[in-house]
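Memo to structure team: turn this sequence into structure tokens by end of day. - J.P.
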Amino acid sequence: MLTPWKYSSSRDDFMNESLTSCTKSYDAIVIGSGPGGEGAAMKLAKEAKSVAVIERYRDVGGGCTHWATIPSKALRQSIQMLNDFRGHPLFKKAVSSLDVTFPQLLKSAESVIAKQVQLRQTFYERNQIPVLAGSAAFVGPNEVEVTDARGGRRRHRARAFVIAAGSRPYRPAQVDFSHPRILDSDKVLGLKETPRSLTIYGAGIVGCEYAAMFRNLDTKINLVNTRAKLLDFLDDEIIDALSYQLRDQGVLIRHNEEFLKVEADPSGVVLHLRSGKQLRSDYFLWANGRTGNTAGMGLEEIGVKVDGRGYALVNENYQASLPHIYAVGDVVGFPSLASAAYDQGRFAATHLVDGTCEYKLVQHIPTGIYTSPEISSVGFTERELTEKCVPYEVGHAMFRHLARAQMVGCTAGMLKILFHRETLAVLGIHCFGYQAAEIVHIGQAILSQQGEANSLHYFINTTFNYPTMAEAYRVAALNGYNRSMGIYPARAAVES
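Reply from structure team:
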């Protein structure tokens, strides 16, 4: 446990110097108020530790609330609703002449952001956690200097620190991001018009999400991928479905391309690729990579290691090079998910307090990708199971066969269950389509169970509301089970 002035021997007997000559001392200081910082701060406060949070922005919530997850997903929801109305036979005439611009749609996110900030602010107030405004920089292993917006500086000390400073879009030096037509995933949220055409360099999650969003606003899209496939960490069948849907919607995808240079003028931007291609569009969106927000924090000066992209290097307990300094969330890189960051913050705080870390609880983190339709998955892919020589079978439920999908007019997509061919243990859940990011959690709950509790029989023998999207689990389970019975007829005879 964290004892006065000293760490236990299990964490290298790190000895703190006297904490007297400073503005105020704490058991722990958390740098950043995004999901990772919030998770750590709340856990420490519940353990009766004195904790302060340093936040350089004027409001709490971090990049997740102000620049990334909340604004982009609220924007996506507004665009999706508009697109759904335009495609609905009852409403498309009424909205066909409706001219809605990108800035108008983006404005819908402001109320969500304000509500999230207000809610998160009450968490700190209720738990009596002071939020110190300004940018933090280490001036010693146990001391940070906080510089506020007016240039005022105050120093604060603590026995331990949790760095949850997040990340920002990677900006290569050869790209002029000061030009109004050259954007990144932060700058795109300040667009003052709906682009007629847009070239997106980088076909990761951010690139694919914005390609889908802008295409639904009738923007012509060039999506440039540096790899051979889109989102190659996903199951191959989901990748194929995404590629088909984007192309069917009119997105032009170019694989295996490499950036050479970009030229911008007042009327547009030209992307030059090493293959010799030149792509001209109204705007250019750089969506290729991110950088950890560690610059100017003084970490290397005190012996905390960071990599070439600014990500803090941590062990399995989220400890950095100095054992009393932890780092969580996007500032450590993968998986760069708000949901994972919050749990990492709690686990780091738990280890800080009593020396245990429950990192195994985040082994089955679902991936949520808000394309159109959306994608979510958890567990193994077919490719991974094949490489591991695991005998598995597949169950499908095509959304075009579900009554609920037919009612809402969202019949593109499917739910896919991967399960062990012999034991029927659920090994992976992959969903592409309407409400994918919601319904994946049913499969996640079963996948995380041990022994007989993790079984395809749960989906077969459970009554699902009808009509719902969730009943896809029963359909997919029966589909896969019937296929497996052809391989094990003796089992089929017994179980029938």
